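Re: weekly structure request thread

Next one in the queue (159 aa):
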Amino acid sequence: MAKNDFKRDRGPKTDEDLEKATGNLATILAECLGDLAFLTEYPIRLVRDLTGVRNRPLVALRTLRIMGDHPGFKQEELTYPLPLMKNDLYIEMGADDWIPLYPFLVPRNCPQCKTREIYFVDKWQGRVSPATFKSFERGHTEEESGVGLALADWQPHSE
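Done, posted below.
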């Protein structure tokens, strides 16, 4: 019923209804923002290049620190104890504790606007189907079967 009311522009009728609905929405929004606060506490990095460090068990990384909505991200050079995937996103939980965001967030060069965009999973129908991604920046969509297979690895396997 609520969805149908929304579609038919049957929202709050009185000032009291509007005030109550606004209060409910403010509570939901505050909870959502609270749940996403960790994104501001930990850097998200795009690995642009990597190379081994001679005579040391380290990998030298050239990364872009993903912050804000500006396409010009700060470039940083760091070392890490393990090789990582070039052109993948990672959230840095600690100096030696990076968690891959693939297959949930994927950087790609958009074929429509010819710029780098970060895509999130918008739709996925299961193991054998490709995933549909939507870009945060412009809402462009792409399909990719390889990412769909990677998402399947996150599903519990029935025995």
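The chain has a mean pLDDT of 84. The chain is about 25% helix and 35% strand.
Next request, please.
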